[in-house]
Design a protein that fits this description.
alpha+beta; 3 domains; 5-stranded mixed sheet; 8 helices
Amino acid sequence: MAEKQKTIERSISIMGYGLHTGQKGTMTFYPAIEDHGIKFRRSDLKKKPVINVNIENVVGTARGTTIGENGANVFTIEHVLAAFCGLGIDNVLIDLDMEEIPIKDGSSKFFIDAIKEAGIVELEKERDFIVINEVIEYEVPEKKIKLKIEPSDKFEIEVNIDYESKVLGKQTASMTSMDEFDKEISRCRTFVFLHELEFLLSNNLIKGGDLASAIIFVNQKVSQKELDRLAAVFNKPNVTVKEEGILNNLELHFPNEPARHKLLDVIGDLALLGKPIKGKITAYRPGHESNTEFARIIKTQLLKNEVMMKTPPFDIYAKPLLDVIQIQKILPHRPPFLFVDKVLEMSSNHIVAMKSVTMNEPFFVGHFPE
């Protein structure tokens, strides 16, 4: 049975702080009509510019994904987009009175809860899927990054991470249906190593976060003085390192919560393709830069396939550069082994030739007996 597009039943608001900007503001979800897609609106700016969720609008991937259009940006969009994907929402207007999505606890759970509270309604029009018909890959060998998508009749994903850290180790997370997102993935929080946190703090790159916004892994010895400093920065009575190698700011929801969060990020970043996907994704050490580049490659390949399905990229009825008689003067092969009828294009580094296949070909005999 065909799936219908969905939106939310009523508007709902979420307040919070942007992780990197420190801005406090409100984000409001509004219902939208069929084929509206997901769009952001910056209501804090004079002209209230709209930013479309589109891979071509990515302007930054440092510590989160940023999109921009019409002179306005929206930072850290991946967690809220993952929430809409996880609940199958196709159409919504996200209004912001600041330039960054509230970080909340570093997961998608608060957004999932808000969407469910607003209610989900089906629209009349059917969903349009991105259907993967061939293997598409992206790899950065020097960073041990690889993403692959292959054909499947549903959305599946497996994420593997290994940052060569004893405290984090190798982790794998997988999902065989988007129905699993709410319970298994949405509450998985972002993570950071303590040395990265110290760098971000010293460079004033975390203005709106606190110790509840991320899992913090400690992969090196740290003095009590440094722990006391962190406690003071985040207004906590004390900070210690737990047996699992993480700070005592929170409890893990799952042993592989970091890998599950990376899976969440992949879903959120690939939402920039604008449609739900039918395909199986396998990702090794994914990040926002690689996720968005992978999305661009998928889009490029889909556009190429679309063009090829519509019209050939050359005129098969034009006068050939070489006909079959001329070809036989060059090639020693003869029918039935001469699989070239004419040459349409040729240069020093490419050739376009054509073979007209008919039912009289010897390799067709017996294939279609009736």
